[in-house]
Give the backbone structure.
Amino acid sequence: KNEVEQSPQNLTAQEGEFITINCSYSVGISALHWLQQHPGGGIVSLFMLSSGKKKHGRLIATINIQEKHSSLHITASHPRDSAVYICAVRVNTGNQFYFGTGTSLTVIP
Amino acid sequence: DGGITQSPKYLFRKEGQNVTLSCEQNLNHDAMYWYRQDPGQGLRLIYYSQIVNDFQKGDIAEGYSVSREKKESFPLTVTSAQKNPTAFYLCASKIQGAGETQYFGPGTRLLVL
């Protein structure tokens, strides 16, 4: 049983396309994180959300607490956006995080 | 520069051998974590520590051991009891408290010969 489910698993887009990655979770959470993992393996945090919506440059993240669902949008996608995007949730009963399996995004010039 | 360092980047283990992965942070973070990443799976928690000299098992602690003698350091030992150690290992740290972001190290890839 996976506490965090992501879709799609793989995504290929043309440069300039609008991209959406979805995340659903089944546990009570205190926060949801979107992470980016580049081919070398290093992970950076993009967003931390507990409600509503956040925007950073071409990236937008939204969360619906009632539906236990979050989306990550990339506007005007670029080849440098190619990476694995990971959804993670911090459970509200402790200090642990649960991670989705990631969405592998490839943006073609 | 503040951050998390992991060494080595690649590590080879022979059958029956214990190996230790290093994780150091100079962010003054209280909490530190070790995760294992396998293809097609999400990160899975091995051990975490919220304070010096204290640590808790995560979901897949069997075959691993840790220590937290200093705030900056959280080494992970992969023992010979871990039957499938080939994976990518990520260390992370965060400020204590709800909702704070985790900061990740660059990872160590462990291969069994």
The longest strand of chain B covers residues 44-51. Chain B touches chain A through 25 residues (CB under 8 Å). Chain B has a mean pLDDT of 92.
